[in-house]
């Protein structure tokens, strides 16, 4: 589903002494089937933006179109439940939303609310478990007995079981060990490709943004600061520096390397070994001269 | 979060009222709450109303904000008024609709009682609007100090109070977060049959309790790790001082008390 923000502003507690502009004049488009990374510091409005994607918050000004759904300040559309079924949101620390007696029941909670038949839910769970990396035995255990990483996977499965068309991820790997982070991100990317999902990822990791996104949107103090293809965005190191954002390690390394040796290697999504070979080749040429 | 209810919310500011010693404010509010019930004629009620309006003006908390914030309480005030209007039968008969008879005594009574109610809520919420919860607990601890003599655990009580106050916003945030997460999974807290709505609270309460217990455990652990052992020999970060302005305010308040009892019938 295509997502379109048109001049959206959001003001917390409007008309009180606590009024606070969380989003200001934000416009962008997310094409159907694309993977977009939203980057910004704490308080830049990322989480607020996410809440607009399934109608948990409505814009104070401007309008949002998500597929056929239309959101504006005029109130909730009647079919908001349909919107929430089609837009699955994995919130930050999603394991905090677990509450059922067993893992199976917790995963089934979402789809059940949207009226999916138990048989269909069971089918989905069977397919989902290996995808999120959970063993089958876990289904009858209490979600509160699991380890942190397993809880996270159960919570993610609970959102995926709704079979959403748009997947919104709010720092889904925060607080996991490096291996768990890689596994979870790879899993999301695989799902994104296999099921042709539209994915919005909020992250602090420039590495993830570079590796997965077709487009990056950078927020700063509630405003859109930059937007574009990752390779284009990461070319503007100075502009990023102004809002205290760094570059992905690969690009940072190549920049420094180029500066040191007067070369002009650019990152074009080459796999690491290939990049290493290229560098080696240049070094050999250099030493012969 | 419930944005409509402002009772217990603190509005930062730097007015005279904000800077008063919290003990002064608590004392004034405490006695005000009592003397509201002593007013019994127009001059006394006017005096009390003037006093509270003056306080609100000095505090510079926007009046519109206070009135809007008291919206849920307005209902109670109006309800009290109507109740007294209908059930009192003193004075002259004003309206007679057969089943409802309104007497002049009822109008006066209704007006007086709802004004009392309004003044009570106005002043008490002004206290919390201009005083941080921490200041209030500090003041309570100081004021209850004499009870230590009879082995009353004043410090522990104050600590309990400040911890619970400290965690109200955290729990509110947590509630907000979890209800959003569950709403995203299709829970509907607002519409549908009552039975469904009651059931919808379970996915909210279970995670809330789990995290509250976890937080309590973490806090206890952190306190113990830093060697916390209660009130004995512990110095204070925030010392309370009674200044000239406190003495002036208290004197003014006592003068008003005297005036009230003079004007009283």
TrEMBL record, chain A:
Sorted UniProt keywords: ATP-binding, Cell membrane, Membrane, Nucleotide-binding, Translocase, Transport
SMART domains named in the record: AAA
Keyword Membrane recorded: yes
Membrane topology category: Peripheral membrane protein
Residue ranges of every copy of the ABC transporter domain listed in the record: 3-246
Superkingdom, taxonomy of origin: Bacteria
Magnesium keyword on record: no
Subcellular location: Cell membrane
Pfam families: ABC_tran
GO CC aspect terms: ATP-binding cassette (ABC) transporter complex
MF-aspect GO terms: ATP binding; ATP hydrolysis activity; ATPase-coupled transmembrane transporter activity; cobalt ion transmembrane transporter activity
InterPro entries xrefs: AAA+_ATPase, ABC_transporter-like_ATP-bd, ABC_transporter-like_CS, ABC_transpr_CbiO/EcfA_su, ECF_ABC_transporter_ATP-bd, EcfA2, P-loop_NTPase
EC number(s) from the headed UniProt entry: 7.-.-.-
Family listed: Belongs to the ABC transporter superfamily. Energy-coupling factor EcfA family.
Function as written in the Swiss-Prot or TrEMBL entry: ATP-binding (A) component of a common energy-coupling factor (ECF) ABC-transporter complex.
PANTHER family reported for this sequence: ENERGY-COUPLING FACTOR TRANSPORTER ATP-BINDING PROTEIN ECFA2 (PTHR43553:SF27), HEAVY METAL TRANSPORTER (PTHR43553)
Subunit note: Forms a stable energy-coupling factor (ECF) transporter complex composed of 2 membrane-embedded substrate-binding proteins (S component), 2 ATP-binding proteins (A component) and 2 transmembrane proteins (T component).
Name listed for the protein in its UniProt record: Energy-coupling factor transporter ATP-binding protein EcfA2
Organism (species): Oceanobacillus sojae
Automatic annotation (TrEMBL), chain B:
Transmembrane segments: 28-58, 65-87, 107-129, 247-263
Coiled-coil positions: none
Location(s), subcellular: Cell membrane
A GO CC term attached to the entry: plasma membrane
Main location per the UniProt record: membrane
Membrane-protein topology: Multi-pass membrane protein
Entry GO MF terms: transmembrane transporter activity
Keywords on record: Cell membrane, Membrane, Transmembrane, Transmembrane helix, Transport
Signal peptide as annotated in the record: none
Subunit comment: Forms a stable energy-coupling factor (ECF) transporter complex composed of 2 membrane-embedded substrate-binding proteins (S component), 2 ATP-binding proteins (A component) and 2 transmembrane proteins (T component).
Family per similarity comment: Belongs to the energy-coupling factor EcfT family.
HAMAP family: EcfT (MF_01461)
Summary of the function given for this chain in its UniProt record: Transmembrane (T) component of an energy-coupling factor (ECF) ABC-transporter complex. Unlike classic ABC transporters this ECF transporter provides the energy necessary to transport a number of different substrates.
Protein known as: Energy-coupling factor transporter transmembrane protein EcfT
Gene encoding the protein: ecfT_1
